[in-house]
Amino acid sequence: MNASAGSEPELTTRFAPSPSGLMHLGHAYSALFAYRLAQSAGGRFIVRIEDIDPGRCKPEFEDAIIEDLAWLGLDWEEPVLRQSERLDIYAEALEQLEEMNLLYPCFCTRSDITAEINRSGAAPHLTRHGPDGPVYPGICKSLSKAERAARRAKGDPHALRLDMDAAMAATGPLTWHDRTRGEQVARPDLFGDIVLARKDVATSYHLAVTVDDAAQGVTLVTRGNDLFAATHIHRQLQALLGLDVPEWHHTVLLTNNKGARLAKRDKAFTLRAMREAGTDPEDLWAMTIRQIARQAASTDGI
Ligand code: GLU
Description:
By secondary structure, the protein is an alpha/beta fold. It folds into 2 domains: 1-85 and 252-302, Rossmann fold (3-Layer(aba) Sandwich), CATH 3.40.50; 86-205, Glutamyl-tRNA Synthetase, Domain 3 (Glutamyl-tRNA Synthetase, domain 3, Alpha-Beta Complex), CATH 3.90.800. Helix content is 38%, strand content 15%. It has helices spanning 25-40, 59-71, 87-99, 110-119, 145-153, 164-171, 205-215, 228-241, 271-276, 284-299, and strands spanning 12-15, 44-49, 81-82, 103-106, 129-130, 133-134, 159-162, 175-178, 182-185, 195-197, 220-224, 247-251. The strands form 5 sheets. The protein has a 3-stranded parallel sheet with strand order 1-2-3, with helices on one face. The radius of gyration is 21 Å and the shape is globular. The termini are far apart. The model has no long low-confidence stretch (mean pLDDT 93). Bound molecules: glutamic acid (GLU). Residues 16-18, 50, 209, 223, 227 line the site of glutamic acid.
């Protein structure tokens, strides 16, 4: 649906966890944040399981996520969409980009990339990084058509990368809106030729999340500040694929007592541990708000 087509679309938020571990207080904050916004606007709330990484995602973590979200008192639209079941949808998006001549196969290993970066002589601290690591130095971009075809025919494993220069030329300048930081000029070019289909799975976080947010009618993407840079890429993919553009709200990341971002290893902060310790789920929202206030106070040097 397009805003220009008539009435405003219903506010739709989502919580999109990867089932690679137990949820902790930071996840509870993200889930409750999105849920409460949808509730207060009488809108829709969606849970999506982002399980494209076969090495890290496990069904038992997916079960635990659903159990924890129910414990938190949330309800969401059924059925819950699972990204691992949508590879054909991502393949269509890749085909669309392929037809626009915006993709090229990349046969590099991680060490090929590191070696090339070292060879190019940039001091490590000057090497540009994007949301997926060091910016790709473009090795496979210069392969000829014949070389690409020969290596593909041989079955050499390859990823598909976005030709960023061509993509920038195709979209022209773009902007996006973050609810706390305001209007942003999209700068996906800072991150180079990003991977849209990995060697081991024929999609990537960027492609899957963009396609799915549009497919599910998400109008407000809420997620942690750690994904702020990725939004530049998602905005560009929306433009290339002709998808509706949501708003974004990037939130504070919760930290542990040492000031480090909460991680799966912070066992005491897992929702399961809190449940077992008898925490009242109704207190969770207030707990997250107190935690954020504490963090803000300590970074102010108080
Ligand atoms: N699946 C991602 C994660 O668990 C979040 C994706 C998003 O919110 O865009 O970190």
